[in-house]
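Sample 1 of the test manifest.
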Amino acid sequence: MAKQPARESGRYAYDGLDRVIHEKARLGILTGLLTRPDGLLFNDLKSLCALTDGNLSRHLTILQEAGLVEVWKGVKGKRPQTLVRLTDRGRGKFREYLNVLEGVIHDALPAEQPKAEGTFRRGWSPA
Amino acid sequence: MAKQPARESGRYAYDGLDRVIHEKARLGILTGLLTRPDGLLFNDLKSLCALTDGNLSRHLTILQEAGLVEVWKGVKGKRPQTLVRLTDRGRGKFREYLNVLEGVIHDALPAEQPKAEGTFRRGWSPA
């Protein structure tokens, strides 16, 4: 047990995990968009994220209201299309979020990696 | 835009992000417990995660019902105490979750890191 947890108060609060971004489906949407600066068509995004039309629309509305994505209506080859892109704000906020996420993994993983030193009692000798 | 998104269908679905674990407060609780194999007292966990009594209790119930943590009642120095520990199942499930989380960062970050090679047009020479 930690001896002085009071000094580490809030250590695992992870306030930077913005709930708008942290939701599983929206995390997928943002990851897909981050790697594609030109944006993605609605149907491609839907397929990449394995979402229904309704679910993707609902999540895009939330992301749009938070100013993280922009949605464009247009026509491509005579068919109406919807293009989704990350805004500059969205890119910045998602980068911040990813930094916190890396912090979570950094906090959790030391416990998972066996240490070569310090696991044996000092001064012990088989002789 | 991706040329053949159909072939990458579900690429950003992240099914491995178990909702029981992915919730922000529970992610903090599990990270705190993973690094402390002996467990944490309720009050220390509450402080580390910056949660209220009610919130921590509610999240622990959810984690207990999923078999991820175990809760022990006892007495320490004449005062009743509650000890929380990760179960073996919890440790395994959380490890799996962290692997998926690393995958998210791996998917997102290539777009963020400038590449030294390939950004210049080949064959160009200042001479």
